[in-house]
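Reviewers of the previous submission asked for a worked example of the structure-prediction workflow described in the proposal, so we include one complete record here. The input consisted solely of the amino acid sequence. No template or homolog information was supplied to the procedure at any stage.
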Amino acid sequence: MRITAETEYRSARDRFLVLQPNVDESWFRLWGGLDGYSGAIVDKVLSETADNLPDPPDGTKPDLSWRKATALVETLTSDEPPPAQVTVIVDAHHATATATDAETGGGLESGVRVGRQALQAVVV
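From that input alone, the workflow returned the following structure tokens.
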């Protein structure tokens, strides 16, 4: 599957987040969309933070959606920077192939495909 620079740019450009409060702002609903690379980072950080939350005193284990929502708040209010390591799997021969103009991209550990610009951003 080829990922052109335009497709990758459009995907990143089309990110959005909506926060909708109820009338008295005692409750907010969130929804949005992220490109695959950004979504994988957010998912990984929230999942790891959620996995490290302490269990409630009553010994129950809240469901994953509650833990991720709590992890989001914890991440945003913490003085510690969140971990943001994502594993990228690249077939070097195909990713740089002249026939595809390097548009084969690569895949994240989560299975999400990313293009050349995302790969260049993470190369260290």
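The first helix runs from residue 5 to 13. We consider this example representative of the routine output the project will generate in years two and three.
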